[in-house]
Amino acid sequence: MKDIFVQSNTNSYHITVGESIRFQLEDYLKKDYSSILIVSDENVAALYLDDILKNFSDKPIFQSVVPAGEQSKNMQTFYQLQTDAINYALDRESLIIALGGGVVGDLAGFAAATYMRGIDYIQMPTTILAHDSSVGGKVAINHELGKNLIGNFYPPQAVVYDVETLKSLNEREVRSGYAELIKEALIADTDFYHTLLETDIYNLSNSELQDHLQRGIKIKAHIVEVDEKESGIRKHLNLGHTLGHALESDLGYGKLTHGEAVAIGLLFSLHVSEQVFAVEQPFEELALWLKNNRYPLSDIDYQTDRLINKMKSDKKSVKSKIQMVLLKELAFPVVEELKDDDIEKYLNSFIVRMV
Amino acid sequence: MKDIFVQSNTNSYHITVGESIRFQLEDYLKKDYSSILIVSDENVAALYLDDILKNFSDKPIFQSVVPAGEQSKNMQTFYQLQTDAINYALDRESLIIALGGGVVGDLAGFAAATYMRGIDYIQMPTTILAHDSSVGGKVAINHELGKNLIGNFYPPQAVVYDVETLKSLNEREVRSGYAELIKEALIADTDFYHTLLETDIYNLSNSELQDHLQRGIKIKAHIVEVDEKESGIRKHLNLGHTLGHALESDLGYGKLTHGEAVAIGLLFSLHVSEQVFAVEQPFEELALWLKNNRYPLSDIDYQTDRLINKMKSDKKSVKSKIQMVLLKELAFPVVEELKDDDIEKYLNSFIVRMV
Hints:
alpha/beta, Dehydroquinate synthase-like, alpha domain, globular
């Protein structure tokens, strides 16, 4: 068990990855809170909520359980959490615990960021994918016109990551999480990238999993320390997300998991990087590994015009120009603004290559 | 025209109080924004929106006009502003201008704080009351169970206060605004308090009004610099607000204006201060001035039990104990936690005194 320390502009906090640490939560609280609200979803609550409750016998503790899935990141569920917090009489000395995947983390984090103009919260991720979203303080809900459009930068007080809670993940969830680990490796750590390419993600030891999570989180944490508000290098974390977000949204959430869509987006970034910089990229190598690990790469319904429009309305775009993170080489990401015509050309040749 | 400079933890900005400065907005923008959204209400838009539009001929400029009144500080209107911002393709380099009173400032400020996790905004207050809310970065909307329960601390990039826009205020609005000036004087500036007690608020020269606003804002700005997140002395600004908020909510918003409710709350604070510290307070003097300036002080329907419950659920309360700001003497505020029984006793004797 190792701690990673994050010092951001607005807050500093520890990220702890370990086994069974969900039973020692008191160790990770920075102060004596007046009351605690645990926010979770139906699936995670059934498995781990009782474990968390056992930590706190001496103070008022409440729970809000939301439906599982992306659709809970909406205005109605957000408002319901606010109602719960008021009805449970949470005050400015209360704590919210986000127990679950990225949806719960983003939703509960945004509720904490806005309840009475902001109270403390901690992240307890229960998916591999959430190693990414639980670090860095990005919290949000979706607007019906786009993902994560309503939110804040609001760092947690701690991230407590019990890898035992990852044992209940199914194959799709493992796949989804590893796509973000591959992304982090691609932008910052060539060694880690090669390690991952030798990994069978469905046969992981606890120590392998911990090691991968820690390496991914370190990359993320370092970037967030330098650029919390995403005015510079934090944009590199969007590698694979320009097309990834557009695909996820265009196909309808749930058709592809976030990570599955990002995996395709990563290949697209490598494809575009090859064209723009006229250098070879490990496109085929990564595509093969993704295929071996059963990522859905073929039979995708690419609607070129719609995808381009969605990429233009991404919140990372400025003046409706598409910005993409590309790789000059492994671990050397750059942000490039692309013309619509070029994007269309690259997308068409990418689709041909993916068949 | 004088500038007041605020250096908070997260941002620094200028507050400019002057005449006709709504026509020179370019001078107050910190950078070249990609587009601008002006948020206003129906009343203010009819009077001043065109003046603001004249400032910007060279870039995309949009408007969102919401219904006038407190009821616009709700989730639906907030969501509509987000929809507008998306449809107008605002990006992270865009600016929101909040043109109006406290409702517009709080609502548009919260929209800016959360749109794509936060874009720049400036405050253009058009009421006297908003001298208070436009400075300090508190932005929020109401929950149906309580005022300002959903929000952020998110400072503006500038406050541009054109006193000419105050000429259209009616008597109630002038009264409402001066209650907060009296509050600021009571907590921090005995001279200013005596000046105000010699003022007929319905016959003000432009220079008197500017002077009063600047003195009030200076007090507010100083407090916000020291304690942006309200963990200490910022609480002093709640003088008069414990009962004020409860009354406003219990009678139904609109029955009393915010300032009228705060005026009664100020008298209550002086009343309780007399009991708790056994010192004389300028209760009668202030009550007389308020009466002379036609503040509604009698014929108020005090529902003691309901008021106490509302005071307990105020977001400044901790563990459901009522905290009140009291005065040991003029310009010497302290925060005291009061027992429910004592509050009830003080409230009953206050009601008798107010008949």
